[in-house]
Design brief:
85 residues; mainly alpha; 2 domains; 3 helices; 53% helix; elongated
């Protein structure tokens, strides 16, 4: 019986480690290209950690946000999307 408990504890630790490594990998993948446009001299909207430059995209009217940002950053500016689908 002790070996089964030890096996379950080992399995839980391995699954937890895989979950943590996967989460860190997804965050690194999502943020891989952040900073590229700013490095080229374009003004860039500061991105959210996981949601990109449009974290409130579901409550805002995109055309009004674009007009607001064009007034703030000029006619050419960069935004960040997280997962390019």
């Amino acid at each position: 019986m002790v070996s089964i408990v030890g096996f379950l504890i080992w399995t839980i630790w391995v699954l937890l480690a895989v979950l943590v490594v996967t989460a860190i990998g997804l965050i690194i993948y999502a943020r891989w290209n952040y900073g590229q446009l700013g490095g080229l001299g374009f003004p860039v909207v500061k991105p959210h950690l996981l949601l990109g430059s449009n974290p409130n995209n579901h409550n805002e009217k995109p055309h009004l946000v674009d007009l607001e940002r064009a007034k703030k950053y000029g006619p050419v500016y960069g935004v960040s999307r997280v997962f390019h689908i």
